[in-house]
Amino acid sequence: MAPPPTIAFDVNETLSDLSPLDARFEDVGAPASLRATWFASVLRDGNALTIAGTPRPFADVARAVLDDLWTRQGGAMADPRAATEHVMAGFAELPVHPDVVPGVRALAEAGHPLVTLSNGASEVARSLLGRAGVGDLFRTFLSVEDVGVWKPSKRAYNHAATVCEVNPRELVLVAVHPWDVHGARRAGLRAVWLDRGAASYPPVFDRPDITVRALPDLVDALR
Q1: How many distinct structural domains can be found in the chain?
Q2: What is the CATH number of the domain that holds 139?
Q3: For a 10 Å CB count at each end of the chain, is N or C smaller?
Q4: Residue 1 belongs to a domain
Protein backbone atom coordinates (compact mmCIF):
# COMPACT_ATOMS: atom_id res chain seq x y z
CA MET A 1 0.00 0.00 0.00
CA ALA A 2 1.31 3.45 -0.94
CA PRO A 3 2.03 5.81 1.96
CA PRO A 4 -0.35 8.74 2.51
CA PRO A 5 0.54 11.62 0.18
CA THR A 6 2.20 14.77 1.45
CA ILE A 7 -0.19 17.71 1.82
CA ALA A 8 0.99 21.23 0.92
CA PHE A 9 -1.27 23.99 2.17
CA ASP A 10 -1.60 27.43 0.70
CA VAL A 11 -1.71 29.86 3.63
CA ASN A 12 -3.33 33.26 2.97
CA GLU A 13 -7.14 32.83 2.95
CA THR A 14 -6.83 29.03 2.76
CA LEU A 15 -5.67 28.65 6.36
CA SER A 16 -5.73 32.23 7.63
CA ASP A 17 -8.92 34.22 8.06
CA LEU A 18 -8.23 37.69 6.66
CA SER A 19 -11.57 39.16 7.75
CA PRO A 20 -10.14 40.73 10.96
CA LEU A 21 -8.16 43.05 8.69
CA ASP A 22 -11.46 44.71 7.74
CA ALA A 23 -11.45 46.51 11.09
CA ARG A 24 -7.90 47.75 10.47
CA PHE A 25 -8.99 49.35 7.20
CA GLU A 26 -11.81 51.06 9.08
CA ASP A 27 -9.38 52.16 11.80
CA VAL A 28 -7.49 54.26 9.24
CA GLY A 29 -10.62 55.71 7.63
CA ALA A 30 -10.96 53.34 4.68
CA PRO A 31 -13.99 51.12 3.94
CA ALA A 32 -13.76 47.52 5.11
CA SER A 33 -14.63 46.39 1.58
CA LEU A 34 -11.27 47.73 0.40
CA ARG A 35 -9.53 44.75 1.99
CA ALA A 36 -10.69 42.38 -0.76
CA THR A 37 -9.58 44.81 -3.47
CA TRP A 38 -6.21 45.20 -1.79
CA PHE A 39 -5.54 41.46 -1.49
CA ALA A 40 -6.57 40.74 -5.07
CA SER A 41 -4.32 43.57 -6.24
CA VAL A 42 -1.38 42.17 -4.26
CA LEU A 43 -1.76 38.84 -6.06
CA ARG A 44 -2.05 40.63 -9.40
CA ASP A 45 1.07 42.72 -8.89
CA GLY A 46 3.06 39.88 -7.37
CA ASN A 47 2.42 37.68 -10.37
CA ALA A 48 3.10 40.54 -12.79
CA LEU A 49 6.51 41.01 -11.18
CA THR A 50 7.18 37.27 -11.41
CA ILE A 51 6.29 37.19 -15.10
CA ALA A 52 8.53 40.19 -15.70
CA GLY A 53 11.42 38.41 -13.97
CA THR A 54 11.61 40.82 -11.04
CA PRO A 55 9.73 39.13 -8.16
CA ARG A 56 9.47 40.93 -4.82
CA PRO A 57 8.53 39.63 -1.35
CA PHE A 58 4.83 39.53 -0.49
CA ALA A 59 5.18 42.16 2.24
CA ASP A 60 6.85 44.61 -0.15
CA VAL A 61 4.10 44.22 -2.72
CA ALA A 62 1.38 44.43 -0.07
CA ARG A 63 2.78 47.72 1.27
CA ALA A 64 3.11 49.19 -2.22
CA VAL A 65 -0.50 48.34 -3.06
CA LEU A 66 -1.73 49.88 0.20
CA ASP A 67 0.19 53.08 -0.51
CA ASP A 68 -1.47 53.26 -3.91
CA LEU A 69 -4.94 52.61 -2.47
CA TRP A 70 -4.55 55.43 0.05
CA THR A 71 -3.68 57.78 -2.81
CA ARG A 72 -6.80 56.69 -4.64
CA GLN A 73 -8.85 57.54 -1.54
CA GLY A 74 -8.52 61.17 -2.56
CA GLY A 75 -5.87 62.36 -0.13
CA ALA A 76 -8.09 61.92 2.92
CA MET A 77 -5.54 59.72 4.71
CA ALA A 78 -3.83 61.78 7.41
CA ASP A 79 -0.76 59.54 7.70
CA PRO A 80 -0.58 57.05 4.81
CA ARG A 81 2.63 55.39 6.02
CA ALA A 82 1.19 54.77 9.49
CA ALA A 83 -2.01 53.48 7.90
CA THR A 84 -0.05 50.98 5.82
CA GLU A 85 1.88 49.70 8.81
CA HIS A 86 -1.31 49.44 10.88
CA VAL A 87 -2.86 47.13 8.29
CA MET A 88 0.31 45.08 7.81
CA ALA A 89 0.67 44.58 11.57
CA GLY A 90 -2.64 42.76 11.52
CA PHE A 91 -1.00 39.75 9.87
CA ALA A 92 0.71 38.95 13.16
CA GLU A 93 -2.67 38.52 14.85
CA LEU A 94 -4.76 36.70 12.24
CA PRO A 95 -6.63 33.55 13.31
CA VAL A 96 -7.09 30.38 11.30
CA HIS A 97 -10.51 29.40 9.95
CA PRO A 98 -12.54 27.24 12.37
CA ASP A 99 -12.07 24.06 10.31
CA VAL A 100 -8.28 24.32 10.16
CA VAL A 101 -7.28 22.89 13.54
CA PRO A 102 -9.54 19.81 13.40
CA GLY A 103 -8.69 19.28 9.75
CA VAL A 104 -4.94 19.52 10.27
CA ARG A 105 -5.08 17.21 13.27
CA ALA A 106 -7.15 14.64 11.36
CA LEU A 107 -4.76 14.66 8.40
CA ALA A 108 -1.74 14.30 10.65
CA GLU A 109 -3.36 11.42 12.53
CA ALA A 110 -4.05 9.74 9.18
CA GLY A 111 -0.32 9.79 8.48
CA HIS A 112 -0.09 12.61 5.94
CA PRO A 113 3.14 14.63 6.07
CA LEU A 114 2.10 18.30 6.21
CA VAL A 115 3.86 21.40 4.83
CA THR A 116 2.85 24.90 3.83
CA LEU A 117 3.54 26.53 0.47
CA SER A 118 2.82 30.24 0.58
CA ASN A 119 3.36 33.33 -1.54
CA GLY A 120 4.06 35.01 1.79
CA ALA A 121 6.99 34.60 4.15
CA SER A 122 7.49 31.23 5.81
CA GLU A 123 7.64 32.90 9.23
CA VAL A 124 4.09 34.21 8.79
CA ALA A 125 2.83 30.65 8.27
CA ARG A 126 4.91 29.34 11.16
CA SER A 127 3.54 32.03 13.49
CA LEU A 128 -0.07 31.57 12.31
CA LEU A 129 -0.09 27.82 12.89
CA GLY A 130 1.90 28.13 16.09
CA ARG A 131 -0.74 30.47 17.55
CA ALA A 132 -3.39 27.93 16.51
CA GLY A 133 -1.55 25.18 18.39
CA VAL A 134 -0.81 22.97 15.38
CA GLY A 135 2.55 24.28 14.18
CA ASP A 136 4.34 21.22 15.51
CA LEU A 137 2.33 19.03 13.12
CA PHE A 138 4.04 20.56 10.07
CA ARG A 139 7.32 19.22 8.76
CA THR A 140 8.37 22.49 7.18
CA PHE A 141 7.10 25.91 6.14
CA LEU A 142 7.86 26.68 2.50
CA SER A 143 7.70 30.05 0.82
CA VAL A 144 8.01 31.09 -2.81
CA GLU A 145 10.72 33.45 -1.56
CA ASP A 146 12.95 30.37 -1.36
CA VAL A 147 12.77 29.84 -5.13
CA GLY A 148 12.26 33.38 -6.43
CA VAL A 149 8.89 33.05 -8.19
CA TRP A 150 5.32 33.39 -7.01
CA LYS A 151 2.69 30.71 -7.43
CA PRO A 152 1.24 29.72 -9.88
CA SER A 153 4.67 29.35 -11.51
CA LYS A 154 5.52 25.66 -11.99
CA ARG A 155 8.87 26.30 -10.34
CA ALA A 156 7.19 27.05 -7.02
CA TYR A 157 5.32 23.73 -6.92
CA ASN A 158 8.29 21.74 -8.20
CA HIS A 159 10.45 23.32 -5.51
CA ALA A 160 8.02 22.04 -2.88
CA ALA A 161 8.15 18.52 -4.33
CA THR A 162 11.95 18.62 -4.33
CA VAL A 163 12.17 19.80 -0.72
CA CYS A 164 9.63 17.17 0.36
CA GLU A 165 11.59 14.52 -1.61
CA VAL A 166 8.49 13.26 -3.41
CA ASN A 167 7.34 12.93 -6.98
CA PRO A 168 4.97 15.81 -7.88
CA ARG A 169 2.07 13.31 -8.12
CA GLU A 170 2.73 12.38 -4.50
CA LEU A 171 2.19 16.00 -3.41
CA VAL A 172 -1.33 17.34 -2.92
CA LEU A 173 -1.90 21.09 -2.85
CA VAL A 174 -4.84 22.42 -0.81
CA ALA A 175 -5.97 25.92 -1.71
CA VAL A 176 -9.01 28.16 -1.63
CA HIS A 177 -7.87 29.91 -4.81
CA PRO A 178 -8.81 28.32 -8.15
CA TRP A 179 -5.75 29.86 -9.82
CA ASP A 180 -3.55 28.04 -7.28
CA VAL A 181 -5.35 24.76 -7.95
CA HIS A 182 -4.83 25.31 -11.68
CA GLY A 183 -1.13 26.04 -11.20
CA ALA A 184 -0.62 22.91 -9.13
CA ARG A 185 -2.40 20.74 -11.70
CA ARG A 186 -0.28 22.23 -14.50
CA ALA A 187 2.86 21.38 -12.49
CA GLY A 188 1.82 17.74 -12.13
CA LEU A 189 0.53 17.84 -8.55
CA ARG A 190 -2.85 16.70 -7.39
CA ALA A 191 -4.94 19.58 -6.09
CA VAL A 192 -7.80 20.12 -3.66
CA TRP A 193 -10.11 23.09 -3.94
CA LEU A 194 -11.27 24.18 -0.49
CA ASP A 195 -14.58 25.79 -1.34
CA ARG A 196 -15.32 28.35 1.35
CA GLY A 197 -18.67 29.39 -0.08
CA ALA A 198 -17.66 30.48 -3.59
CA ALA A 199 -20.46 30.73 -6.11
CA SER A 200 -18.74 28.37 -8.54
CA TYR A 201 -15.38 27.13 -9.76
CA PRO A 202 -14.27 29.19 -12.80
CA PRO A 203 -14.43 27.06 -15.96
CA VAL A 204 -11.25 28.64 -17.37
CA PHE A 205 -9.11 26.73 -14.85
CA ASP A 206 -8.22 23.03 -14.71
CA ARG A 207 -10.62 21.23 -12.41
CA PRO A 208 -9.45 20.14 -8.95
CA ASP A 209 -8.95 16.47 -8.21
CA ILE A 210 -11.02 16.88 -5.05
CA THR A 211 -13.40 19.55 -3.75
CA VAL A 212 -14.25 19.86 -0.06
CA ARG A 213 -16.14 22.44 1.94
CA ALA A 214 -14.14 21.91 5.16
CA LEU A 215 -10.69 20.50 5.88
CA PRO A 216 -11.82 17.57 8.08
CA ASP A 217 -13.66 16.19 5.04
CA LEU A 218 -10.37 15.80 3.20
CA VAL A 219 -9.26 12.74 5.19
CA ASP A 220 -12.01 10.53 3.77
CA ALA A 221 -11.76 12.11 0.33
CA LEU A 222 -8.10 11.12 0.05
CA ARG A 223 -8.66 7.49 0.99
Answers
A1: 2
A2: 3.40.50.1000
A3: N
A4: no
Q: Is 133 within a domain?
A: yes
> Which parts of 41-162 are beta strand (E)?
114-118, 140-143
Are 99 and 176 contained in the same domain?
Answer: yes
CB burial class (10 A; 0-12, 13-18, 19+) of residue 16? buried
Weakly modelled stretches of the chain, pLDDT under 70: 74-76
Q: 214 near 197, Cβ under 8 Å?
A: no
Q: What mean pLDDT value characterizes the chain?
A: 95
- Do 173 and 8 form a contact (C-beta atoms < 8 A)? yes
Domain range holding 204?
Answer: 6-17+94-222
C-alpha torsion sign, points 166, 203, 215, 110: negative
Task: Give me the pLDDT at residue 75, please.
Answer: 58
Tens of pLDDT, residue by residue over 34-86, are 999 999 999 999 999 999 999 999 999 999 999 999 988 765 677 899 999 99
Q: Which of 52, 20, 14 is nearest to 178 (CA)?
A: 14
